[in-house]
Write a structure and sequence with these properties.
With 332 residues, this protein is an alpha+beta fold. Helix content is 61%, strand content 9%. It is built from 9 helices and 6 strands; from the N terminus they run H-E-E-H-H-E-E-E-E-H-H-H-H-H-H.
Length: 332
């Protein structure tokens, strides 16, 4: 105790802001009725070879349902070790505290799925790795000394976790910038050939423009474009008008019965008042009937508009026919 300033804390320890394992208890197997308690800070298991250090770690991993990585060389050994410790029907119970200070018990029987309890009540659907122990890291006895190809990447992934997301995002952004620059350089590599091709296209276009002016094709193009614009506008008008009639019909059908049923109401105590009230209300029903009659008139108008549009299409077709013949005769 000579260095009590560095070894003894005078105040209450601060509340932990991370999840941690409080204890593990065994029922059955070679550690039957044993309970091991852990500190929320650093824990060290010390013992000679074969004393059970790896057994404790592997059972903890098994109960918390932490999978073995793809690069793990001794999967079979670790699974056999868990089976040896728990034995047939053996159970391990981990008591854990989440990062908010709530206590959970995770029970797992050998060869069965883990179960999560809060105050001895089963809580189905709780994810251990997301709720109880937030993304725990696991390394077995041989994992850190693994020298297989790709192990370093796996190790960094485990240690850094979500912290690598922003880094990867920046790398992808810079990668895309490099790809875009390379693409631009490739386009510039044959710039001389592209210039020649564009010059040829320009000459062809200038020749065609001259011919258009000479044979009046430019004006015909303009007229055909105007015909197409008018056709699109007529189709839009007819379509919008048709939609209006359909929506009006749906609106009347939706509310007509309710409006008319109100008119059938008979009051037992306020007969004179409701008679006077309904004398005004009846105009709403008459208005609906008028709308139904007007809807029929609107449908007649729509038919006439469609007939006029058909007449326009015939005019457009007659105009386009000689224009197509002139274009096919070799002028263009």
């Amino acid at each position: 105790m000579t260095d009590y300033n560095g070894r003894v804390r005078q105040n209450e320890p601060p509340k932990e802001k991370h999840s941690y394992i409080k204890s593990i208890a065994f029922k059955g197997g070679i550690l039957d009725q044993k309970t091991i308690y852990f500190s929320p800070e650093l824990n060290t298991l010390i013992g000679i070879r074969g004393s059970g250090k790896s057994s404790i770690i592997e059972v903890l991993r098994y109960v918390l349902d932490i999978p073995l990585g793809e690069k793990t060389d001794d999967k079979e050994y670790k699974n056999r070790l868990v089976a040896y410790v728990l034995g047939s029907g053996g159970t391990a119970v981990v008591t854990a505290i989440d990062r908010f200070g709530s206590e959970y018990k995770i029970k797992r029987i050998l060869n069965e799925f883990p179960s999560v309890y809060i105050e001895d009540t089963l809580q189905p659907g709780i994810s251990i790795k997301e709720t109880v122990m937030k993304n725990p890291l696991y390394f077995g006895q041989k994992d850190l000394s693994n020298s297989r190809e790709g192990f370093e990447k796996v190790l960094v992934e485990k240690l850094m976790g979500e912290k690598l997301f922003d880094v990867r995002k920046k790398i992808e952004e810079q990668k895309q910038i490099v790809i875009d620059k390379i693409f631009q350089f490739k386009k510039l590599s044959n710039i001389d050939e592209q210039i020649k091709e564009y010059e040829k296209q320009k000459q062809d276009a200038e020749y065609n423009i001259k011919k258009f002016a000479e044979y009046g094709i430019e004006a015909k193009f303009k007229k055909q474009t105007d015909f197409n614009t008018d056709d699109r506008k007529l189709k839009q008008i007819i379509n919008d008008f048709s939609t209006f009639i359909t929506d009006l019909d749906s609106f009347i059908n939706e509310h007509e019965d309710a409006i008319k049923n109100h008119y059938q109401y008979k009051s037992n105590q306020n007969i004179d008042f409701f008679k006077d009230f309904m004398d005004e209300y009846v105009f709403i029903i008459k208005f609906i009937e008028q709308q139904k009659n007007d809807k029929n008139k609107l449908e007649e108008i729509l038919k006439k508009l469609k007939i006029k549009h058909e007449t326009f299409l015939k005019t457009k077709k007659e105009f386009s026919r000689p224009f197509k013949i002139s274009c096919q005769s070799g002028i263009i």
